[in-house]
Amino acid sequence: MLPKFVFSVLAFFLTTPTLEAFISPLISFPPSPSTQRSSYRCSKTPAKQYDASPSATTSTIPPVQAVSSDHPLIQLANEIIYAKSGFYSPYDSSVFAEDFVFRGPYIGPLNKMDYLQTMDTFGIYKALPDINPNAFGFSIDPKNEKRVWFMVR
Questions:
Q1: In the chain, N or C terminus with fewer CB closer than 10 Å?
Q2: Could you tell me the CA-to-CA distances from 61 to 51, 52, 57, 116 in Å, in that order?
Q3: pLDDT tens digits, residue range 20-71?
Q4: CB atoms within 10 A of CB 125
Protein backbone atom coordinates (compact mmCIF):
# COMPACT_ATOMS: atom_id res chain seq x y z
CA MET A 1 0.00 0.00 0.00
CA LEU A 2 1.36 3.43 -0.93
CA PRO A 3 1.77 6.05 1.78
CA LYS A 4 -0.67 8.95 1.94
CA PHE A 5 2.05 11.35 0.81
CA VAL A 6 2.48 9.55 -2.53
CA PHE A 7 -1.28 9.72 -3.16
CA SER A 8 -1.29 13.46 -2.39
CA VAL A 9 1.59 14.16 -4.77
CA LEU A 10 0.02 11.99 -7.47
CA ALA A 11 -3.34 13.72 -7.04
CA PHE A 12 -1.64 17.12 -7.21
CA PHE A 13 0.08 16.33 -10.52
CA LEU A 14 -3.02 14.76 -12.03
CA THR A 15 -5.13 17.80 -11.27
CA THR A 16 -2.59 20.48 -12.09
CA PRO A 17 -2.66 22.19 -15.49
CA THR A 18 1.16 22.09 -15.57
CA LEU A 19 0.99 18.37 -16.23
CA GLU A 20 -0.80 19.13 -19.48
CA ALA A 21 2.05 21.48 -20.42
CA PHE A 22 4.52 18.60 -20.04
CA ILE A 23 2.48 15.84 -21.66
CA SER A 24 0.58 17.56 -24.47
CA PRO A 25 3.68 18.59 -26.47
CA LEU A 26 4.80 14.97 -26.37
CA ILE A 27 1.57 13.53 -27.70
CA SER A 28 0.22 16.24 -29.95
CA PHE A 29 0.57 15.72 -33.68
CA PRO A 30 1.15 17.73 -35.78
CA PRO A 31 3.15 19.92 -33.42
CA SER A 32 1.49 23.09 -32.34
CA PRO A 33 3.28 26.39 -33.06
CA SER A 34 4.39 26.63 -29.42
CA THR A 35 6.16 23.25 -29.60
CA GLN A 36 7.86 23.68 -32.97
CA ARG A 37 11.61 24.07 -32.95
CA SER A 38 13.08 27.48 -33.25
CA SER A 39 15.29 28.15 -36.24
CA TYR A 40 17.93 29.48 -33.84
CA ARG A 41 20.70 27.33 -32.47
CA CYS A 42 23.03 28.49 -29.73
CA SER A 43 23.24 31.98 -31.15
CA LYS A 44 20.76 34.44 -32.54
CA THR A 45 21.88 33.64 -36.09
CA PRO A 46 19.12 31.77 -37.93
CA ALA A 47 19.94 28.25 -39.06
CA LYS A 48 20.58 27.89 -42.79
CA GLN A 49 17.51 26.64 -44.60
CA TYR A 50 17.92 24.29 -47.58
CA ASP A 51 15.50 24.06 -50.45
CA ALA A 52 14.61 20.37 -50.81
CA SER A 53 12.17 20.90 -53.65
CA PRO A 54 12.81 19.19 -56.99
CA SER A 55 13.14 22.58 -58.60
CA ALA A 56 16.23 23.37 -56.53
CA THR A 57 19.34 23.56 -58.68
CA THR A 58 21.85 20.74 -58.28
CA SER A 59 24.72 23.22 -58.27
CA THR A 60 23.94 24.07 -54.62
CA ILE A 61 24.40 20.45 -53.52
CA PRO A 62 28.07 19.62 -52.95
CA PRO A 63 29.37 16.48 -54.64
CA VAL A 64 30.04 13.39 -52.53
CA GLN A 65 33.72 12.59 -52.46
CA ALA A 66 34.19 8.86 -51.94
CA VAL A 67 37.65 7.56 -51.12
CA SER A 68 38.83 4.02 -51.71
CA SER A 69 39.63 1.87 -48.71
CA ASP A 70 43.05 1.43 -50.34
CA HIS A 71 43.90 5.09 -49.68
CA PRO A 72 47.20 5.23 -47.70
CA LEU A 73 45.78 7.43 -44.91
CA ILE A 74 42.83 5.12 -44.35
CA GLN A 75 45.16 2.11 -44.30
CA LEU A 76 47.43 3.87 -41.79
CA ALA A 77 44.50 4.89 -39.54
CA ASN A 78 43.16 1.34 -39.61
CA GLU A 79 46.59 -0.07 -38.75
CA ILE A 80 47.05 2.34 -35.83
CA ILE A 81 43.61 1.59 -34.40
CA TYR A 82 43.94 -2.19 -34.60
CA ALA A 83 47.67 -2.68 -33.92
CA LYS A 84 49.35 0.39 -32.39
CA SER A 85 46.86 2.43 -30.33
CA GLY A 86 47.56 1.10 -26.84
CA PHE A 87 43.88 0.40 -26.26
CA TYR A 88 43.15 -2.56 -28.55
CA SER A 89 46.78 -3.67 -28.71
CA PRO A 90 50.17 -2.66 -27.29
CA TYR A 91 51.04 0.88 -28.31
CA ASP A 92 53.79 1.94 -30.66
CA SER A 93 55.07 5.26 -29.31
CA SER A 94 56.59 6.17 -32.69
CA VAL A 95 53.14 6.69 -34.26
CA PHE A 96 52.25 9.44 -31.77
CA ALA A 97 53.55 12.94 -32.48
CA GLU A 98 55.61 14.65 -29.77
CA ASP A 99 52.88 17.30 -29.44
CA PHE A 100 50.09 14.64 -29.32
CA VAL A 101 47.20 15.54 -27.01
CA PHE A 102 44.33 13.20 -26.16
CA ARG A 103 41.07 14.99 -25.44
CA GLY A 104 38.05 12.97 -24.37
CA PRO A 105 34.65 13.97 -23.06
CA TYR A 106 35.61 13.12 -19.46
CA ILE A 107 39.36 12.53 -19.61
CA GLY A 108 42.04 14.87 -20.76
CA PRO A 109 43.81 16.68 -22.04
CA LEU A 110 46.62 14.12 -21.82
CA ASN A 111 49.95 14.70 -23.50
CA LYS A 112 51.83 11.85 -25.19
CA MET A 113 53.67 10.69 -22.06
CA ASP A 114 50.53 10.77 -19.87
CA TYR A 115 48.44 8.98 -22.52
CA LEU A 116 50.99 6.18 -22.94
CA GLN A 117 51.32 5.78 -19.14
CA THR A 118 47.53 5.58 -18.92
CA MET A 119 47.42 2.91 -21.61
CA ASP A 120 50.12 0.96 -19.71
CA THR A 121 48.17 1.25 -16.47
CA PHE A 122 44.83 0.10 -17.86
CA GLY A 123 46.10 -2.53 -20.31
CA ILE A 124 42.62 -3.07 -21.74
CA TYR A 125 43.96 -5.39 -24.44
CA LYS A 126 45.51 -7.61 -21.73
CA ALA A 127 42.30 -7.81 -19.70
CA LEU A 128 40.14 -8.44 -22.79
CA PRO A 129 42.39 -10.23 -25.29
CA ASP A 130 39.61 -10.59 -27.87
CA ILE A 131 38.63 -6.90 -27.81
CA ASN A 132 37.87 -5.50 -31.23
CA PRO A 133 37.34 -1.84 -32.15
CA ASN A 134 34.81 -2.65 -34.91
CA ALA A 135 35.92 0.51 -36.72
CA PHE A 136 33.97 1.36 -39.86
CA GLY A 137 32.99 4.25 -42.12
CA PHE A 138 36.51 5.54 -42.74
CA SER A 139 36.58 8.79 -44.68
CA ILE A 140 38.95 11.65 -45.29
CA ASP A 141 37.87 15.09 -44.16
CA PRO A 142 37.14 17.19 -47.27
CA LYS A 143 38.41 20.33 -45.54
CA ASN A 144 41.57 18.75 -44.10
CA GLU A 145 42.99 16.03 -46.31
CA LYS A 146 45.29 14.84 -43.50
CA ARG A 147 42.39 13.97 -41.15
CA VAL A 148 40.63 10.59 -41.20
CA TRP A 149 37.18 10.22 -39.66
CA PHE A 150 35.69 6.86 -38.64
CA MET A 151 33.16 5.36 -36.27
CA VAL A 152 33.49 2.64 -33.64
CA ARG A 153 30.70 0.35 -32.45
A1: N
A2: 10, 10, 8, 43
A3: 444 444 444 455 555 555 544 555 666 666 666 666 555 677 777 778 888 9
A4: 17
